[in-house]
Amino acid sequence: MGDLLVRGGTIIDGTGAPARRGDVRVRNGKIAEVGENLRPEGEQELDAGGAIVAPGFIDIHTHYDGSMWWDQTMDPSPQHGVTTVLTGNCAVSLAPVAPGGRDALVDMFCFIEDVPVPAVMKSVPWAWESWAEQRDVFNNLGASCNITPLVGHNNIRLAVMGQESFERAATDEERQRIYDLTLDCMRAGAYGVSLSFVDSDSKGRRVPSRLASAEEYRDLAIAMNEVGYGLLQYVPRFMRAESYIKDIDRVDAMCKGLGVPHTYAPLVAGRRNRPMAEEVLAHTRAVRAAGGRLWPQVSPRSGFDSRMVFDGSSLSFGAMPSWASMCMAQGADKVAMLADPAWREKARQEWDSPVFVLFPRKAVGKLLIGEVLQPHLKQFESKLFESVLEARGGHPSDVLAQWILDCDLEPNLVVPGSADEDRDFLGSLLAADDVLLGASDAGAHLLLFCGAGDTTLFLQRHVRERHDLTIEQGVRKLTGLNAEAMGITDRGLIAPGLAGDLTIFNLDELHYDTEKIVMDVPGGYKRFSRPEGGYRATVVSGEITQQGGVLTEARPGRMLHAGEQGR
């Protein structure tokens, strides 16, 4: 908890109110005074001349649950103005965990979030079973960001039902235990519960959250109503408007009459699926008009080119176990698998099955071939993969497997998403007061993209360049509005008594740069990070966590307790 005087800046307080000149004093980690020409009282001083002083940014959809144990800086989120992250999204967290249930939990978490299993197994201390025990262990470490954690529904069902949680709904006795465990997590500080209606595990099974009955789902909302706080976050089946809407209605029914807010991510907003997004948003607004406390989340990265990763990332092949296991295999094992006729037979069957996966197997020919290092394959460089399919013939699963082998396991295929971007539509969504900026996925999918930096992209593109929002509206989008929607009551605004979390920046100095590869994941694994974003300083509880793009040694962030906000 630090003492700090930020002087001479332009204060944008997170409410949407007009900017004003002034100083901000933080004492013992909390904002003590806001005004003009505040006199120093011996605290550290920070000159904010020519800069905006805003509340610390709140990233409401991250997956730092694993990496925060080996990287307490949560790089690069602080360098993009973030002071608080919401973890435990998409029905997975790292607590609670039943005795003997760790391996199953880690396998599921790492498969869904594309994080290497060895890194999580070796670097997470695993000195807990309960939610409260995890919080205590983490708070002995500290971090560069505060954590407002959700508890994963998968965790709760797995802890109570074991492997049968992948197979069926709970019995009445199990329902009571699930309710009691949910209540225990909430009373120990969880900010809510996360669900998934779409994910599968490494064996192609539906995750436990998808097997719950309507009564089980309702129990979660009843538990939150009992403690008086908490929200439900969920991943809907976002492939078609019909399934999207069905899942929205399912969660709204869970919360009906209980006052529990709920939020879904993502609202997919590309050019091709704009009609679907408009239909889903219209239904969302109808639910809100009828009294539902519902918030959709949109990322400013709605349309972007993404690399197809066949090494260490299995997300794209969720319900295709053969392809998923190949992606997670290493070196000689991967080569042997790709060349094995038995594996290829199973891979073809999965390719032809009707199950939904993110990998565009029905349009694999539209993947773009990037740089090709093998001289005998150079004729395919910068062409679509359909050129390889036409030249070689055969089943597309076999052709792709052979291409990966021929490219020495580095096929360099790209999903060209930027052509699908609709910035006008995206700008209108981000400007809407009933749509949240979220769904960054920072901390997950380490070899697909770096989700951190959405804050900078949003401010650079939609505030500075396109003027979809004013700077006051843009800051509110990243701070006060996210805090309000997520039930975070002790931060998100600049006002006396609230947390001394601040972001200092000049809008013209911000820059959103291309991702870079770093080799800092335990076990020798790599990930995508992003260069710093041009922020002058980021402050958590009165302590500077980054200055001029350089991380400091300060680790004031804590895993916060939802029931103790403001204490």
Automatic annotation (TrEMBL):
<protein>
    <submittedName>
        <fullName>Unannotated protein</fullName>
    </submittedName>
</protein>
<dbReference type="GO" id="GO:0016812">
    <property type="term" value="F:hydrolase activity, acting on carbon-nitrogen (but not peptide) bonds, in cyclic amides"/>
</dbReference>
<dbReference type="GO" id="GO:0005829">
    <property type="term" value="C:cytosol"/>
</dbReference>
<dbReference type="Pfam" id="PF07969">
    <property type="entry name" value="Amidohydro_3"/>
</dbReference>
<dbReference type="InterPro" id="IPR032466">
    <property type="entry name" value="Metal_Hydrolase"/>
</dbReference>
<dbReference type="InterPro" id="IPR050378">
    <property type="entry name" value="Metallo-dep_Hydrolases_sf"/>
</dbReference>
<dbReference type="InterPro" id="IPR011059">
    <property type="entry name" value="Metal-dep_hydrolase_composite"/>
</dbReference>
<feature type="domain" description="Amidohydrolase 3">
    <location>
        <begin position="427"/>
        <end position="545"/>
    </location>
</feature>
<feature type="domain" description="Amidohydrolase 3">
    <location>
        <begin position="44"/>
        <end position="226"/>
    </location>
</feature>
<dbReference type="InterPro" id="IPR013108">
    <property type="entry name" value="Amidohydro_3"/>
</dbReference>
